[in-house]
Amino acid sequence: MTVPGYGDDLVLATRLADAADAITTARFRALDLRVERKPDRTPVTDADTAVEDAIRAALAAERPEDAVLGEERGGSAATGRAWVLDPIDGTKNFLRGVPVWATLIALVVDGDPVVGMISAPLLGRRWWAATGSGAFSSDSAGTRQLSVSGVSSLSDAYVSTTDVNSWREYHSREKYLELLDVCWESRAFGDFWQHVLVAEGAMDVAAECIVNPWDVAAAQVIVTEAGGRFSDLDGAGRYDNGSALSTNGLLHDDVLGILKR
Fold it and tell me: Which of 47, 136, 164, 256 has its CA at a distance of 20 to 30 angstroms from the CA of residue 179?
């Protein structure tokens, strides 16, 4: 795998994803899986912490000068080079035996995601991108370059969002329903999957009203390198502003016109 600029970092992200997959697949549906509840009432399993600890140990050995921000162990990605980690995105699925979950790994440089790696081993899928080098995915059929859809009207758009109760609490239930009403079809794939589906061209819009930086840092570079557009719900091209909108680019302003408050 040769990628100019961030090629070595992407190769490292691939090895980190391999290590994560070995841990998560071994613990998936394990009868002795340990589950705790964090202060925000979200679940964390022993697999989450084991993956993050393993990735942090590898980064300490191979990129000792880089900062790390992870869901389970904290940290900062404010300046310079920082790796942003979500050891298991979709922990609720993981602990319930639903195979839709992934490890998310991003390299952020001075606040901008430049490398993204998303690995979903039970789906047999992986997605990755580096700034200026395109976005790609692999599955049992091989590797292909990603490109967003060419849908240009919301009336023809396939949209994925998250739970309506989250929109009621963190943004606007009315605007959520307005978006769904004007689109052709809606689903709630949630988490990482809806954003990579936008990058693949399978979905046209993915919107989340509440996210953490580690939820979408990798998705941002994958979506944009596939030709799409990523922002928060106010239109700022940031992964760390608390919300997320991925589109094919053609529909972005129309969606923002509905969701902006």
Answer: 136
Q: What angle do CA 166, 51, 36 make, to 5 degrees?
A: 55
List, in sequence order, every beta strand (DSSP E) within 90-220.
102-109, 112-120, 125-130, 135-139, 142-145, 158-160, 185-187, 205-208
Alpha-carbon span 223 to 134, nearest angstrom: 10
Residue 30, phi then psi, degrees to nearest 5: -70, 135
Q: What is the pTM of this model?
A: 0.94
| Structure tokens belonging to residue 191 | 């988490």
Report how many domains make up the chain. Answer: 2
Higher pLDDT, 130 or 1: 130
* Distance in angstroms (rounded) separating the CA atoms of residues 243 and 215: 10
CB atoms near residue 251 (< 10 Å): 25
pLDDT digits (tens, 9 = 90+) for 16-64: 999 999 999 998 988 888 888 766 667 888 999 999 999 999 999 999 9
**Secondary structure (3-state) at 226:** coil
182 with 226, same domain?
yes
Task: Give the domain-ending residue among 145, 167, 186.
Answer: 145
Residue recorded with tokens 């589109």? 247
How much is the pLDDT for 209? Answer: 96
pLDDT value of position 1:
42
Say whether both 109 and 219 belong to one domain.
Answer: no
